[in-house]
Design a protein that fits this description.
Two copies of one chain form a homodimer.
Chain A (H helix, E strand, L loop, with lengths): L9 H9 L4 H9 L6 H5 L7 H13 L3 E6 L2 E9 L1 H4 L2 H14 L17 H20 L1
Antiparallel strand pairs in A: 1-2
Chain lengths: ~140, ~140
């Protein structure tokens, strides 16, 4: 998968990769809701089309934000897991959530497992990452 | 300008607004480089097409992330300024920059005025916002 980068700026280059309406929604589903399968991603309330989902998963895999594997007990279904590079999007995801919570009051932060820790963002981010890492460990063990 | 929101999640709603390759590049140019005019935005190294630039500025204005005005001494040229809602994207922009710096080592954080303060993100964000606010004050005074 070819990806062209517009400049040597790390902001625009990150947006070359993740600047679309879906990539970070998929990362949200993995990181905050522990989703792992194509079926789980396709059932999110945003209603992603399966073609777009397949293409975004492929892109995230190509750039090593996620890995695809099969579990020994189920050789039919792929499961998708965030790599460290993907889990390190937690601070960015949290800022997206907080900005949306502040400026789109019709949208509801309570829908996300981010409650009660707003004052201490660093702890919240660490908690999200530790939680995901323990899901990861449990899954591939 | 109609904008449809996919769900009541603040993450996906923020991406409905800002999840594209250009909106945050324009915010970067305003916030970190103090750019204010159409001409200045169009001269960024990413080479935004003028039609896309015009449409993104209109969207950012519609959703009150920026305001457009004219200066008394120059009635020909519009200048664009971030609102508080726009300036409050600083934490998100900083996270985008740091993730890009960490995971796209071919891209160069030194290009951005973000040097030396990596350890203290909160101070960096405050400094960026204060700096922008003083540009704002000087411009409209």
């Amino acid at each position: 998968m070819k990806k062209s980068f517009r400049s040597s700026c790390p902001i625009s280059s990150t947006l070359d990769l993740l600047g679309d309406k879906w990539s970070l929604v998929i990362v949200r589903d993995m990181l905050l809701f522990g989703k792992q399968t194509f079926k789980e991603f396709s059932q999110s309330q945003e209603g992603i089309a399966t073609g777009i989902l397949a293409s975004r998963l492929k892109k995230l895999e190509t750039f090593r934000l996620i890995t695809k594997r099969k579990l020994p007990e189920n050789q039919k279904e792929n499961i998708y897991l965030l790599t460290k590079k993907g889990v390190d999007l937690a601070p960015l995801i949290v800022e997206v959530a907080y900005w949306g919570d502040k400026y789109m009051p019709e949208y509801n932060l309570e829908l996300l497992p981010l409650k009660g820790l707003k004052a201490d963002k660093a702890s919240l981010i660490k908690q999200i990452q530790n939680n995901y890492n323990s899901i990861f460990e449990k899954t591939i063990r």
